[in-house]
Structure formats: structure tokens, C-alpha cells
Design brief:
The protein is of the alpha+beta class. The chain folds into 2 domains: 4-121 and 289-301, 3-Layer(aba) Sandwich (Aminopeptidase); 123-267, Gcn5-related N-acetyltransferase (GNAT) (Aminopeptidase). Helices cover 39% and strands 25% of the residues. It has 11 helices and 15 strands. The protein has helices at 15-24, 34-39, 76-88, 100-109, 128-133, 140-152, 165-179, 185-199, 245-257, 273-281, 295-301; strands at residues 8-9, 45-51, 54-61, 64-67, 71-72, 95-99, 116-117, 123-127, 156-159, 207-213, 216-227, 230-238, 263-265, 286-288, 290-293. The strands form 3 sheets. The chain has a 7-stranded mixed beta sheet with strand order 9-10-11-12-13-8-14, with helices on both faces. It starts with 7 loop residues before the first strand and ends with a helix. The mean pLDDT is 96.
Length: 303
């Protein structure tokens, strides 16, 4: 029977373990991706254990523990062990980030259990082709702002490399001054997450683009291949001094990966209304949905 002592905090040295697991069982959501977890470790503490090709993730956030169901070659026995452990957690929703495919397995094992969708953490997944061509009336507003920018502003696109890491860091300092990161806990931790990703750019097999205007970085995008046909954009930041610069970095990223990826995953909106509207405006092809289960339902149904 698994217990909390079986979980170990993730570290950079665990990258090969996750790479091997995900080469056989694709990550179902952006928050299962190793880069996401290790970069945000200062904000959400991620731990894991692997049993017989089943990855089980435990997170600690604001003094509460959250379990996820097994991922991989899921067995009914391990699923029941996770439910038993979830019962012991002091948390009204102890089992969460349940992907759609695992939801079906849970419902087969516990036919009467209630799974609640967690809309704030649905991944937005777009067709790369849509983000490149922006065809149709649905994209008219985006096209207009993009065209206005490209006609009025000269810019260059470069890859993020070791040679410009220091300039990227300087841009992030400016970005945090614009956004007043110190007054916002989430933004401050996002700053730390981006800096961690840049510091370990090659170890995490990341890629990135930057937009240069008058020789200065004014936007960046950091991404990786989540699955063979999907690019995951971890971070996208732009200067408030240039209206439309976010449209440009989005478009340039899509163009850069269009020959190698069918889809682009742009992560969730975390329930932030402005971010939700921005992500919806690009017309997602589908969502990577996730669900959670309340403690009462686990206590009532899981034995």
C-alpha cells in the first residue's frame, strides 16, 4: 500500500526518468510535463513515485496535499491504493488534475463516483495551421492588429540561445517592472519559473524565440515538444510599449513550428478572465480537460 513517505520531491536529475516514462505514455496535460513541474517547484511542490509503469504525482500547495491518479499502465489495484491515500488527506478535493482518459477508467472502477470538471485548468490546444494563417472572420481582429504592427514596426526574430540568455534575463527584469511582479505573488513566481527554465534551457531541451525592435528584446516565447505532434508554449511575454507584440510572437512561434507540429498547447487560463478571453479569441481546436473529486465522494464511494 502506497503512503506519503513513498513520494520524493522532483529534481533536475529526475529528467531521464520522466523522459523514459513519457516516451511510452504521453503526458496528458501541460501540468504533467517535467519542465512545468520543475520550473514551478518554488510555488507548488511536486513529488512523485513510480510503481510498475504507473507514475503518481503528489503536490503541496499552500499547506495542502493534492494527489493525482496513476498515469501510465494503470491497474485497478493501484487506482484503489491512490483513492485510499486520498481519503487520508486533509483536503476537501484531495484528488485532482484527472485527465479525460483516466476519468473513464475511474468511472469503470467506481461507477457512482462524481467527477467535477476543473475549467480553470483546461489546456487550450490549437491547430498550428490556424495560428499561422488566421483565416476567416473569427480572426479578423487579430489579423488587423497583427497587420498594423508589421506595417508600422520593423522587427527581427531570433532563436533564444546561450549567446542571448543575459539579454533575455534583462528583458524579464523590465517585464517585471512593467507588471510590478513584487506586488503579485503569482507573477513573482512566474518570473522565478521563467528564470529557472532559462538557466536550464538545454538540460530541459527547451526552444524559444525572441522579437528584437531597435536591437532590444521586446517579446519572448519559450516552448518544447510535449508530444510528437504538439508543441507546448510554457512562457510568452511581451513589452507593453508595443501594441500587438503578443500577436507577433504568437504568430512567429506558430510559423516556426508549423512543419513539425500539428498542434500548439498554450496551457490553461487559471481562471484569469482577461487571459481566458485572449486564449478563446484564438479559437482553440480542443481542450485537454481535467477533473477533480471531492473528499465526500471519495469517502462515500471508494472502499
Amino acid at each position: 500500500m502506497i503512503n506519503l513517505n513513498d513520494f520524493q520531491p522532483i529534481s533536475l536529475e529526475d529528467y531521464p526518468i520522466f523522459k523514459d516514462h513519457y516516451s511510452r505514455f504521453l503526458p496528458p496535460h501541460s501540468d504533467y510535463v517535467f519542465t512545468t513541474m520543475i520550473s514551478w517547484q518554488d510555488y507548488v511542490q511536486y513529488s512523485y513515485t513510480i510503481r510498475d509503469d504507473q507514475l503518481i504525482i503528489l503536490t503541496h500547495f499552500k499547506d495542502r496535499a493534492y494527489l493525482r491518479p496513476p498515469h501510465g499502465n494503470i491497474t485497478q489495484d493501484m487506482l484503489k491504493q491512490v483513492f485510499m491515500l486520498a481519503k487520508k488527506l486533509d483536503n476537501p478535493s484531495p484528488l485532482g488534475m484527472i485527465p479525460g482518459t483516466t476519468k473513464e477508467i475511474i468511472e469503470q472502477t467506481y461507477p457512482y463516483i462524481k467527477l467535477t470538471s476543473h475549467r480553470d485548468y483546461f489546456d487550450y490546444v490549437y491547430r498550428t495551421e490556424d495560428l499561422v494563417h488566421l483565416k476567416g472572420s473569427a480572426y479578423s481582429s487579430i489579423r488587423n492588429r497583427l497587420n498594423k504592427f508589421t506595417k508600422s514596426t520593423e522587427y527581427q526574430v531570433e532563436d533564444i540561445t546561450e549567446e542571448n540568455f543575459s539579454e533575455v534575463k534583462e528583458f524579464l527584469k523590465r517585464w517585471c517592472l512593467w507588471k510590478d511582479c513584487e506586488s503579485d505573488e503569482l507573477l513573482d513566481h512566474e518570473r522565478k519559473a521563467i528564470l529557472y527554465a532559462i538557466a536550464h534551457f538545454y538540460e530541459l531541451h527547451l526552444k524559444g524565440l525572441l522579437i528584437l525592435i531597435n536591437g532590444q528584446i521586446e517579446a519572448i516565447a519559450v516552448y518544447e515538444y510535449m508530444t510528437p505532434d504538439t508543441v507546448l508554449v510554457h512562457f510568452e511575454k511581451g513589452s507593453p510599449d508595443y501594441d500587438g507584440v503578443y500577436k507577433v510572437i504568437n504568430w512567429e512561434t506558430a510559423k516556426n513550428v508549423q512543419t513539425t507540429s500539428e498542434y500548439i498547447n498554450r496551457e490553461s487560463d487559471m481562471g484569469i478572465e482577461g487571459l481566458r478571453q485572449a486564449k478563446l479569441s484564438y479559437r482553440p481546436h480542443h481542450f485537454n480537460k481535467v477533473y477533480h473529486i471531492n473528499k465526500k465522494d471519495i469517502n462515500d464511494q471508494a472502499t
